[in-house]
Amino acid sequence: MDSANWSDQPAVHYLAPAVTRSAKIVVAGAFGVGKTTFVGSVSEVTPLRMEEPITQASVGVDDLRGTPHKTTTTVAMDFGRIHLLDDRLVLYLFGTPGQTRFRPLWEGLTEGALGALVLADARDLEGSHEVLSLLEEQQTPYAVAINVFPDAPRYPLHEVRQALALDPDTPLAECDARDRRSCVYALITLIEHLTARHAPAPLVEPRP
Amino acid sequence: MTGPRHDPDMIRPYVRTGGQNRPSRDVRLETVLIAASGPTERLGPDARRVMRLFAGGRGGLAVADIAAALELPPSTVRILVSSLMDSGHLTSPAPVQEGRPGLDLLEEVLRGLRELV
């Protein structure tokens, strides 16, 4: 985000009075994969930023005085939102860095989330494994969307699926994070998947 | 970044929140809040800043919106907001549902997204 956009007192955008429900989707992915671009394409407000300081004990360093070294990192999360259904519902999208070291942050983010859309770069599929592991560890359902960068090679999706080691029923789509329509379709793919997971299992319970 | 910034390390979150280190109720980043009532004189400085955002009845805000507007860590805002709900200063028109989101919410979001394209 351009620092010139920040003023002393940023304008506060209030929600519509008709809002009676809210929901959230996590837009996760490796660094530089286009999360904020995606959030900005869908959001009706310029993406806002939250900053959470995270204190961690340094790894692999023993302090001889017996007090572990602590380092504080500030993790920035950009988010956006959109009113749906005649303003009765507001959907929040949280762009979330996918590194394991931000694990403490993830609990608050994924708690109550509908699910996660993982953005991936076909040129760096390796970079997505960490975020996929985190989501699986937290049992957060997800779909994957390859952000089609103009200069990136296009690979057949079945090869991408294999490279990401995705389950057969995990949706895999392509999207252009700069294009609103394309982003909304990626979100629809995710929600359709989540809805299908809710479908009642066949009734095979034994009769009493 | 321009403008005054709070250094998050200058004041520990539990000081900002009056000694609490976790929210007293299930308040999430997307929890929508509106102003209820109650005198604000006895609130701490950060709680008063939160309430000032709601002065004048300009509308609701979610926890994340408050964190961005006040440049406070979201974990701190969750605690502040839960206390302000306990004291009756804030209320939510969209109460949190326990556990994973239900099918009805998913279907509403799906319907809303399909209306966009």
From TrEMBL, chain A:
Keywords: GTP-binding, Hydrolase, Nucleotide-binding. Gene3D superfamilies: P-loop containing nucleotide triphosphate hydrolases. InterPro entries: Gliding_Motility_GTPase, Gpn, P-loop_NTPase. It comes from the Bacteria. The keyword S-adenosyl-L-methionine does not apply. Signal peptide: none annotated. Belongs to the GPN-loop GTPase family. This is ATP/GTP-binding protein.
UniProtKB/TrEMBL annotation, chain B:
Gene3D superfamilies: Winged helix-like DNA-binding domain superfamily/Winged helix DNA-binding domain. Residues 1-10 have a biased composition (Basic and acidic residues). Residues 1-22 are annotated as: Disordered. It holds the Pfam family DUF742. This is DUF742 domain-containing protein. It comes from Streptomyces filipinensis.
